[in-house]
Every structure is written in C-alpha cells, then in structure tokens.
Amino acid sequence: MTHKLTAFLAFVFVIAMLGLTPAPGHAAEPASGSASEQAGHQRLADLLEDEAARTALVEQLRKLGEEEAARAVESAAPTQTLAGQVAGLTQSVAQGVVSEGASAVDALGVAWTQLAAADPAPLAWAAGEFAVLVAVTWIVFRVLSAAAGALFRALDRYAGARDGPRALGWVRRSLALVAAVALDLSIIGLSWLAGYGVALFVIGETGSMRIQESLYLNAFLLVELIRMALRVLLSGRGEQLGLLPIAAEDKAYWSAWASRMVFFVAYGLMLVVPVIDHYLTPALGRAVFIAILLGAVLRAAVVVMQNRQRASEALERLAGRMQTPFGRIALTIGARIWHVVALIYLMAILVTSILYPEQALPFMISATGQTLLAVGLGIALAALLTQVILRRIRLGDELRMKFPLLEARLNAYVPSALKIARFVILAVVVAFIVDAWTPFDLGAWVSSDAGARLLGRALSVAVIVTLALLAWLVVASWIEFRLNPQAGMAPNPRARTLLTIFRNAIAIALVVVTTMVVLAEVGINIAPLLAGAGVLGLAIGFGAQKLVQDVITGVFIQLERAIDVGDLVTAGGITGTVERMTIRSLGLRDMHGTYHLLPFSSVDTVSNYNRDFAFHVGEYGIGYREDSDEAIVHLRAAFDELLADAAQRAQILDPVLEVHGVTALADNSVNIRVRIKTLPGGQFGVGRAYNRLVKRHFDAAGIEIPYPQMTLHFGEDKQGKAPPARVRIEGAGGPLLAPGG
C-alpha cells in the first residue's frame, strides 16, 4: 500500500495547483520475459565472479535495505499533513533523480566492462540470427499486406457505395469495417506465427527459443495490434474504413506520429530494456527505461504544443455542432485546457516512473486504457441514446385524436430522460476513472454492503419516480380524454371544473406521496415530517377557516351541479350570468354589466334559472266590469299568435297554454294567471313577447287594463258642506271664472 500512496503523492505533486488528484491504484507487475531457472543461476554466478558487477549488486542491496527501513519508519511514524507529504515527495523526487543519475553512470561502466570481456563471435552470431527473425517477420507481414491490398480496396469501395437508403449505408460500412479488422488480424497472426516458427525451428536450437526472440515476438504482436487499432480509427486501410471523421491530411499526420511513438516506446520497453536487464545489469536497464520514457514524454509534449491551436479549433467546431448545452460547455472547456491536461499527464508518467519504474508504467498503461475505454464507451452510449431518445414519439391518428396532448406530453419527458441518462453515464464513467487512478476499488465497493445498499436505494428511487410518472401520465391522459369534445360527448363547464380540480388534487397527492416514499427509501425518518405537516395543516385550518369553508362549499356545489358557467343564477342576493367559477369563488355579471366575485362561503342559497326547463308566469289584471271568460279567450288567442312566431316557438316546450283562472279579486283589478313552459333561460324572452301580444289583443277587444286612479276631496266645514272649488276655464275669448271664483 506504501508504493500506491507514494505514487499518488507523485501525481499530486505535479497537478496539485490545478486541483486534479488522481493517484495510482493497483499497479500490475512489470511485463518482462522470464528466463529458465538454470539461466538465472548462471547469471548470478557471472555477477558474483565479476568485481564491478558484484560491487554494483551490493550497492543495490544496501539501497533496497535503506528503502525498506525508511518505509518501516514511515509506517510507524504518525500521519503527516498534506503539506508535509508534498514536501517529502519533493525531496524523494530530487533524491531519486540524483540517485538514478549516479546509478546510470555506474551501470554504464559495468556494462562496458562486461562487453569488453565478452567474446564477440557469439554476440555477432546471436545478432545475426535475431536479424533473420526480424527480417522474416517483417517480410511476411509486408508481403501479406501487399497481397491483401486488393481486398482492402474492394472493402473500401463497398463501404463507400452511396446506393440504397442511409441506414443500409451504415450497415454496409460496419460490415466492411469488421471484415477489414478480421483480415488485418489474420495478417498479423500469420506474420507472428511465421516468426514463431523461424525462432523455434530455423535459428538456434530446434524447439527452443531465446529470451530476446520471445521478447521481440511479443513486442511485434502488441505493436501491430496497437497499429491496427490506429488504422481502424484513422482509416489506415481505406478512406471509408475508419471511425474518426477527420481530414485525410490529419489522418496521415496522426497515423505516422502515433506509429513512430508506438514503435519507439513498445520495442524499447518490451525488448531493449528486458534484454539489457538480462544480459547486462538491471541498473543500466533502469537507466535506459527512464531515457526511453523521457524521450517519449518530451516528444509527446512537443507534439501537444505544436497542435494546441489546431486541436482547440477542432474541439470548438465540434462544440458548435453539439445539440445539448452540456456537450457544448464540456467541449468548449476542453478546447481551452486540453493541452494543460495532456502535459500534466505526461509529467505524471515521468515522475511516477522515476520513483517506481517497475510499477509505474504498467499502472499508467492499465489506468490510461481503462480511462480511455470508459470515456469512449460513455461517449458512444450517450451519442446512441441521443440519437434514439431525441427522435420524436409518433402516435397514431386515432390516439392523437382521442389524446391530443399525449404526444406532446411524452415528448416533453424526452429531454429530462436524456439528461438523467447522461448523468448516470457520467457517474459510471467517473467511477471507472476513479477506480483506475486511485486505491478505490469499484468492484469491491459494489459488492460491499454500503455499495449494494446505495445502488439498491438508487434503483428503488428510480423505480418509484418512474411509477409515479406513469401514474400521472395515465391520469392526465384520462382527464384529457374526458375533456376532449372529439373523443365523445362535449364536456360541460361543470365537468371541466371538476376534472381540473381532480387533476390538481392528483398531482399534489402524487408529489407528496412520492416525496415521502423517496425520503423514506433513502433512509430519512419521515415521522417528524408527517407530524410537522399535521401541525402545519391544523394551524392553517384554524387560521384560514374562511378559505377552507370556501373550498369545501365550492366542492359540494360543483359535485351537486348547482351552478355551471353560463347559467343565470341568483346567489348571495345577486342575479347574473356565471362567467367564472373556481374551487373557492363564483364570478357573476348582472344585467347592468357589473361583475361580482362571490366567495362560496357567502352563498347559502342558489337559484338557477337554467336547469331542465322554465316557466313564464303571467298574471294579468282586468277591470271589474269586464268579462273574465272573454279575457281568457283573448289570452289564448295571444298565445296562438305567439306560437306562430318560429323564433318564439323554438323556445316553447308545451304548445298548450296553462290557464290557472282568476287568482285574485284585487283592489282595482280581477287577476287572471297563465303559465308557459319554455326552455331553461328562454322564459324571459317568451314572457316579453307574450306581454306585447296580450296588450294588443286586450286593446283591440276594448278590455280595460286597470291602472291606479286618484279621487280628490276638498274637505267639509262643520255643517258638512263642502266649500266651493274655484275653477278657472280658459277659452278662446279669455279666461272664464266658474261660480264661486
């Protein structure tokens, strides 16, 4: 665990000022060829016989002992602060550089001594046989590649064909790419087998293979596999046989640079360094290892700075084509800092390699591969989800007619679902990156109780929220179906109001219940929340009694269908037409145009003039000297004339006039009552038209309609005689005075 922490601090030392804190985790064992046990014993004997080699070995053993002692003291010492650890790391890096330099100088002297004492003839023979192996392997590889060139060109033409639909083009290109990869693998495998056969049966002892030959074949296989991956990415076998959509000039540049870098690093670390370790000294191999890494890092840093502007512009153009804000922002930030991240990564490789060369390189390769794989798969999966989810959901014409808002509602969930999916993908990618660069073990955490509990809770929360959304989708669609006049009977205002209230109540209930269940699922005790909600509800109930009364009264008025929008009602002593109705108030506009807003708590009685049917009740007075039967005949005649009017006839439900007869012998008139049954709300217009006709018929028949009259009395004196009234009569000849005037 100590080497992991030290490697972690090495990386922190390079990038602490930028806030990036990845650290080496589980480093793999260095890949090197293993010699036989006999060869190992022989090598140890040769080292002990050589004075310089023995001295170097003793120094290395002492150095290892000092390091082990320092580690023991460090493990026994109390934990240092971050500043102390960084200072210690700085000291370790400086000491490591000085120590590596001194060891390299000593190793060169030892190696020179060994080479000077060696017999050149076996060395030349071994070098010649090794050259034969290399030549045969590369000649077979080149010949097979040239022979397969026609096949690669045919696959390139097949992939680039433009006939047929676009989807067929993608299938054709995928098949061509798979076939090219299979053909490339065949070429590499046959070349490797040819070299393997030469090493076993042509050069050296038959059936045996020397370490340098095994190392070369392993390095050849790895290098060609990496180059094949580069060809797949950069269209190395054909213009259409590639994945990255970049210009041909850029493909050629990056392909050549990457191939040279792979050759230099892979053959250097997998062939040159192990051979030096085996035949010369490990110290010299270590020096060559650091030199190879230093050269690769410097060359990569130069390439990064040379392509800084071009890569930034390419990332910015790609950001401009992104459909999501997250992608645009991420690529824009990446365009500005990508070179800094690349330089930090290269420096981290160099620093960790100086501190722990045996462990750093395998770890960096493993961590880098895992990071690139996680990021690549995450980007590919996010792009696939974007292509699939962003396609609008299309419903059939019948469903769209019944549920006109369902398609829009489903498509409204698409951006949110895509954001959640991207967040999950990002979290998984970050988890894999953390697993690659830190001592954190993702697999162990997932299998632990804490990990299983957290993942189970996250899955439960996702299922609960999904079920709640599905329930809301079903309820909202059903309400939409009931409110849609094209799906059946047109809803009346009462139904619209009740369904709207029901939809709001369901929405509030779903939100509250889902929130409580989710909080309980994540481990939060909801009992205090429920108790607090109860107390709050009680306080609101006492403090807003009028509001509660308005709501309750409004709900019952709606359920009993006492009022609908458009009805003519009398409520709270006000008569008017209902223009607006909510769960707590009623809006009326009277005949004068005044708008009245009445809380339902103030409505104790409702008189609705628009229910089922209505009556015009008319009570007509005639003089005492008139014949009531004759008056009834004229009332019926007026009604018959009213029926002759088509507009009024449409409002009358019963074509028979109800005559109630003489209802009162009043002070000045004999009252006769009649009643006409009309449509709801039509009684007022029918009554006005009937009154007009009654007046015309009575006037034509000479039937008197009494009206109030006044009798004047001038008074009497004590003897009961009335005093004379002075009357002035004006005529044409002047005023005349009546007697007494």
Automatic annotation (TrEMBL):
Residues 367-445 form the Moderate conductance mechanosensitive channel YbiO-like transmembrane helix domain. The chain crosses the membrane at residues 130-155, 175-203, 215-234, 254-276, 288-305, 326-351, 371-390, 410-434, 454-479, 500-520, 526-544. It is found in: Cell membrane. Residues 1-27 form the signal peptide. GO terms for molecular function: mechanosensitive monoatomic ion channel activity. Pfam families: MS_channel_1st (PF21088), MS_channel_2nd (PF00924), MS_channel_TM1 (PF25392). Residues 505-545 form the Mechanosensitive ion channel transmembrane helices 2/3 domain. Residues 547-611 form the Mechanosensitive ion channel MscS domain. It comes from the Bacteria. The keyword Transmembrane helix applies. Keywords: Cell membrane, Membrane, Signal, Transmembrane, Transmembrane helix. GO terms for cellular component: plasma membrane. InterPro entries: LSM_dom_sf (IPR010920), MS_channel_1st (IPR049142), MscS_beta-dom_sf (IPR023408), MscS_channel_2nd (IPR006685), MscS_channel_C_sf (IPR011066), MscS_channel_TM-2 (IPR011014), YbiO-like_TM1 (IPR057485), YbiO_bact (IPR045276). The keyword Membrane applies. It is a multi-pass membrane protein. Belongs to the MscS (TC 1.A.23) family. PANTHER family: MODERATE CONDUCTANCE MECHANOSENSITIVE CHANNEL YBIO. This is Mechanosensitive ion channel MscS. It comes from Thauera phenylacetica B4P.
